[in-house]
Amino acid sequence: GFEDAGTGTPLSAIAEAFEELSSCLKSNGYDDLRLKPFCDACSLVSVLFGCLGIAFKFAELEYVSKVRDLAEASEVFGSLNSILDYDVRSDTVRTPGSLSRNLRRVRQGLDLIRALFQNFLSTYDDSLKEAASMAYAKVCAPYHTWAVRTAVSAGMCALPTRDQLLMKLNETDDSAEREMRRYIDASLPIIEYIDKLYISRSITLDW
Ligand code: 1PZ
C-alpha cells in the first residue's frame, strides 16, 4: 500500500506477494495459477531463513534449490497445472527431483510458515522453540526422514528469541501481527489449491 512505499519490511513484501497471488487465483475461479509469479512469491520467503541462524542453513539450501528448479521450468511450463500434467504423463509425480515433487515440498514449506506464524501469534513466549517445534511436528515432520527430523530438532535450540526475530525482521509486535495475519489468510487458498492439483488427479498426499 501507499504507506509502505519504499519502506516495506520483508514480512510486508511476503504478505503483499501472497495477497496478489491469491487474488489472481480468485479472479480466475480457482482454476489456474501461473508458475512464474508463484515462484517469485515463494522466493521472497527465503529472507526468513536468514533470521533463523546457521542451524537452518541446510533447510534454506533445500528450499531455495527447489524453488529455483521450479522457476527455471517456468520458461517451459506456464502454470502449476501443466507441471502436474507432465509428471502424470511420464509417471514422475513422486520421483525425487521432479517438478511435481518439488512443488509438493515447497507447498509444505509455505504451510510450515503459516503454522509457525499462527503459533507465533497465539503465544507470547520469549522462546520460539515451542511455536516452531509444534508447527514443524504438525506440517513437515510426518514427511521427513529421521535424520532430517533430528537435525531440525537440534536446530530448534539455536533459534533466535521472539524479540530478536522481531528486530531482525524490522517489525514491532503489532506490525508483525498484522503482516503475519495477511500471510496466514492469503496463503491458505494457495496451499489448498496446490493440494487440489494432486487430489483431482487421484494422487494421495501422504508423502
Ligand atoms: C522462527 C521459526 C523457526 C522455524 C524453523 C523451522 C525449520 C524447518 C526446517 C525444515 C527442514 C527441512 C530440510 C530438508 C528436508 C528434505 O528432507 C526435503 C527433501 O525433499 P525431497 O528432495 O526428498 O523431495 N525437502 C523439503 O522438504 C524442502 C524444504 C522445506 C523447507 C521449508 C522451510 C520453510 C521455511 C521455514 C521458515 C522460516
Shape type = globular
Share of helix, binned: 55-70%
Strand content: under 5%
Mean pLDDT: 95
Radius of gyration: 17 Å
Main pleated-sheet profile: none
**Structural category:** mainly alpha
Output the number of helix runs: 10
The low-confidence runs, each spanning 5 or more residues with pLDDT under 50, are none
Bound molecules: ligand 1PZ
- The succession of helices and strands, N to C, reads HHHHHHHHHH
> How far do the termini sit from each other?
38 Å
Number of beta strands: 0
Question: How would you sum up this structure, described in words?
Answer:
- With 207 residues, the protein is an all-alpha fold.
- Helix content is 67%, strand content 0%.
- Helix 1 (10-27) runs antiparallel to helix 2 (35-44), helix 2 (35-44) packs antiparallel against helix 4 and helix 6 packs antiparallel against helix 7.
- The protein is globular and about 50 Å long.
- Ligand 1PZ is lined by residues 48-49, 52, 56, 59, 62-63, 66, 96, 101, 105, 108-109, 112-113, 116, 128, 132, 136, 140, 144, 148, 152, 159, 165.
Structural key phrases:
207 residues; 0% strand; 10 helices; binds ligand 1PZ; mainly alpha; globular; 67% helix
Secondary-structure map:
Blueprint: H1 10-27, H2 35-44, H3 46-50, H4 57-73, H5 80-89, H6 99-121, H7 129-139, H8 146-155, H9 162-168, H10 173-199
Quick summary of this structure?
The chain is an all-alpha fold. The protein has ten helices and no strands. It is 67% helix and 0% strand.
